[in-house]
Amino acid sequence: MWLNKFLDLEEDIEKVIREELFRDIKKKKLTPLEFTIIESIFQIHEISGYDLIQKLDKHFAGTWKASSGTVYPILSKLKSNGFLNIREVKSPIGPLKKVYSLTEAGEEILKRKVNLNFSKQIEFIENFLIELTSIYIESFDDNLQEEETKTVLGTLKETFDRVLQNVPIGRPVKKCPICETELENKAQFCSACGAPHRSDENKKKNE
Question: DSSP labels for 163-181?
Answer without folding.
Answer: HHHHS-SSPPPPB-TTT--
